[in-house]
């Protein structure tokens, strides 16, 4: 049996791609939530919870592989940061869906659908980018676009906050809705963290 001194560990790429694909699933469930009535939302929340658990499993698999690998395709710290940031995205999306159900929100404010559309687009871009970590090709446009989307998400978030505080809503409703739109904004920030980590990896590998 031939001993390979520097084995190539390629499973990380597949695991990152699987994690990103799961995020696309989560973003689609968020889109479903927008058009669902109160009875349908509980079922969507259950599916989102299952997707979040799948995301946790994917993250733990990456960490386990990281701890058991002698050679990694890029810096261990970057692998950890990338896996953690991908996991954060799913956590925030699942939290937003759960809050909508727990708070019995009858109608989400106008503008939330724009938040969700930004997240869905960022999810698609992230899923497309992960396989390119193998070659580090065609990644520049990815992180530039995700950063642009995060700036767009910031603007949408500020407009939503202004709407919530314009006196139209009861105080308790403001508290509920603000927490939901804040969590969706955190999901957008997490997408940017993923893109920034990918940029860091690409720069180191260039």
TrEMBL record:
Listed PANTHER family: UPF0111 PROTEIN YKAA
* Full protein name: Phosphate transport regulator
Q: Which organism is it from?
A: Streptomyces aurantiacus
InterPro entries xrefs: PhoU-like_sf (IPR038078), Put_Phosphate_transp_reg (IPR018445), UPF0111_domain (IPR052912)
Q: Name any one Pfam family assigned in the record.
A: PhoU_div
* Family note: Belongs to the UPF0111 family.
């Amino acid at each position: 049996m031939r001993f390979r001194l520097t084995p190539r560990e390629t499973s990380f790429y597949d695991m990152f791609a699987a994690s990103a694909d799961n995020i696309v699933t989560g973003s689609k469930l968020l889109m479903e939530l927008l058009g669902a009535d109160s009875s349908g939302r509980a079922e969507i929340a259950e599916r989102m919870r299952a997707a979040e658990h799948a995301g946790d499993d994917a993250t733990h698999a990456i960490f386990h592989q990281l701890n058991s690998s002698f050679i990694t395709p890029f810096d261990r710290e970057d692998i950890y940061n990338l896996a953690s940031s991908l996991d954060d995205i799913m956590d925030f999306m699942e939290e937003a869906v759960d809050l909508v159900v727990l708070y019995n929100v009858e109608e989400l404010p106008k503008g939330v659908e724009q938040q969700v559309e930004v997240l869905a687009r960022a999810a698609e871009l992230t899923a497309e980018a992960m396989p390119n970590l193998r070659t580090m090709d065609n990644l520049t446009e990815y992180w530039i676009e995700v950063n642009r989307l995060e700036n767009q998400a910031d603007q949408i978030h500020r407009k939503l906050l202004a709407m919530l505080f314009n006196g139209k809503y009861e105080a308790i409703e403001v508290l509920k809705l603000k927490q939901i739109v804040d969590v969706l904004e955190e999901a957008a920030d997490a997408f940017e963290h993923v893109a920034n980590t990918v940029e860091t990896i690409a720069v180191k590998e260039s």
